[in-house]
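Write out this protein's structure.
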Amino acid sequence: MRLIKIFLFVLLLISLVSFVNAQEEPICIVYFYGIGCPHCAEVSPYLDDLEEKYGDKIDIYRLEIYHNTENYKIYNNFCGIVNLELEERGVPFIAISDKYFMGTSPIKNNLENEIELMLESGERTCPLDGQMECHSGGSTGFDISPVASGKKLTLPLILFTGLLDGINPCAFAVLLFLLMFLLEVSNSRKRMLKAGIAYVAAVYVTYFLAGLGLLTVIQMSGLSGVIVKIAAVLAILFGLVNIKDYFWYGKGFSLKIPGVTKGMIENLTRKANIPAAIVLGFLVSMFELPCTGGVYLAIIALLADTVTKAKAIGYLLMYNVMFILPLIVIIILVMKGLKTEHIEKWRDSKKNIMKLMLGLLLLILGVLMLTGVL
């Protein structure tokens, strides 16, 4: 009798363990997408966020259907099961249990709710039951690995690159020239502060809007993956030019504000009023892109390829705060009484080091982007 009780207890324990394991089995989600699809580029980062949030509670299998005929067959079979007409089919497309969500908004508005419902009910039906082996590690011959894109932009990386991008001699020189002239023609630090803030604000707004426009174009093109590679190559080339300038500045090709614009900038600076400072900030932001545009292009291409547009805009705002931070520091130092001549002397003595730092950053960014680390 005692042995029977022990036996029944062991059976109950085994049943409980099996039940718990069944409950803990991940929810199977199948994501059909196409390389070059702009809407898929928006959905992929959202799915990465869901994977990070739910961890091992979900498995997202990614099936590319534009270039993989086997995956395309699986997609068409599922569409046939749910009675979706051929002319109505498209990507991005999510299959979960016996349901599907097609398009950016339906996926973002419904998928997480469906995951929560399945977690509560304990349902773990695979949407492609019979066509693939979920959670078993078995090979199906299809491209269904539940892996994320592997590309993650972090806030520290955004802040660091923005700050290093902002430490450049181009914007420094114009701001110092403006402040020095204001000190020469007027001892009013209040006037100098207003003009300096107008200049920095114009730089911020112009740089941000330029980045936002470029981000929008890249995401709408559906070629963010290709553009990332192009941006990586450009970053490496720009990096090598900056490193060259550290050793042999003025020899061969250099990244600098075009000489033909210097007269225009000098004339605006001598006007020394707020409208002129705003125009000056706009022009310098445009003209200094050859100096720093490599970093910005690389970051924007990565944002377009790895995060949603809303999150990318937030990152761009923070990137540009860091970009103008050195300019703000210069204004504060001058307001505190530090002579602009001393700052200019320091800038001139360190400009080669700045170019070296910028060049190394571009080189590292480019290599990491080409190798898929970023």
